[in-house]
Request: fold
Amino acid sequence: MKKDRISINVIRRLPRYLRYLDDLAYKGVSRVSSSEMGKQMGLTASQIRQDFSCFGEFGQQGYGYNVDTLRRHIGTILGMSELRSAVIIGVGNLGRALMGNFDFDKYGFSLVAAFDLAPNVIGTEVFGLVVRDGSNFENFISEHDVDIAIMTVPKRNAHSVAKKLAAAGIKGIWNFTNIDLGISDSDVIVENVHFSDSLLSLSYFLSCQENDTEGKN
Amino acid sequence: MKKDRISINVIRRLPRYLRYLDDLAYKGVSRVSSSEMGKQMGLTASQIRQDFSCFGEFGQQGYGYNVDTLRRHIGTILGMSELRSAVIIGVGNLGRALMGNFDFDKYGFSLVAAFDLAPNVIGTEVFGLVVRDGSNFENFISEHDVDIAIMTVPKRNAHSVAKKLAAAGIKGIWNFTNIDLGISDSDVIVENVHFSDSLLSLSYFLSCQENDTEGKN
DNA sequence: TAGATTGTTAATCGATTAACAATC
DNA sequence: TAGATTGTTAATCGATTAACAATC
Reply:
């Protein structure tokens, strides 16, 4: 039974399901049960079935789930078939890493422009895109009705860039700067990739393990 | 009252508290109440007090929390005062982005070596480190008792690199490859930064908003 | 002192797990 | 048909919120 309001926890698990299913498909596996998935992913079969059931009925009693069907469903739920446009603001090493290695197409995004402020970068070609002058990305965004901006700019520019993006009508921001953007008043959707938050979690778990090990010795 | 087992949700909020407190300190604010924090961070005051109380008593009735004291406490909880060693495996654009822009020291980590497989990269100096031959990082890791490895290698190498790291006695892996490493049998702590998972969440929320807006028009 | 705000207990809410009828 | 496995309802568990005595 489709649910109206889906919890954030469920959403955050979907991409992982998808990666797992892609892997199965790659290995030539065409069907899978919730219990098999659970065993391999470290989740309960119940949770997996509950998660899927938020969006519809994708399985078959006595059989399980067809890998390809399920992949397609999850992909659609996640908006992968929407074909959205993206621009990247900041062509430093991180920006280049994304431009060169991240498969935007695979996830339904098309990278249509890249912006930077450095005079020696503007005009150069980076992974197939000529870098534009970052002092005026607003026009491009509103004219081309760009869906999302990828912010790979230095921290100090983050607030002002975010404000400009919101004003230009961007719909979402994929934020790699290590701060909270402070545009929660706008209806721009912000998805943060906070490297330091991630490293600090790792650091915490390392400390836990050290304490545990001490106790055991 | 200190708690024994802390939930993952609490841990994941701590780095954000820390960033907020750093910001306050930077602005010269020396005290803050849970309700003020809650208002600004979009959390309930209750939750903030509950979170802190997992680790001890850091506030004062009628006054609130001293910003500097609280920062120090949270930093310590997260292991920031431990001084751990890190190596980076894979000196591509992403590796360089981290080497050049990420302030490892600030979080208690020291980047002691960088490895890559490309002959034209090995031996070159990148942000103060001479890149070592990535075909033999195991010796270095076990000899220097390295704490964590940062994996910024191509997907196809991820599994084998992870296995070698585990065998060499690494304690944690900060994983930037877009896959689950499959070393859950070892006691290596893995912290994933899955770019695609993040983008797909953003994609989902964009789709939600589109549907909402349609409804309203 | 009076006002403010903590730390903590109790109440509520939501998420996960278990159980099972339905059915392929 | 018998076995397997779903989708869903009910039970449990845990996390968040509310309330308040303690006290600065």
Summary: Chain B touches chain A through 58 residues (CB under 8 Å). The longest strand of chain B covers residues 109-116. Residues 1, 33-35, 45, 49-50, 52-53, 57, 59-65 of chain B lie near DNA strand C (CB under 10 Å from a C1'). DSSP finds eight helices and eleven strands in chain B.
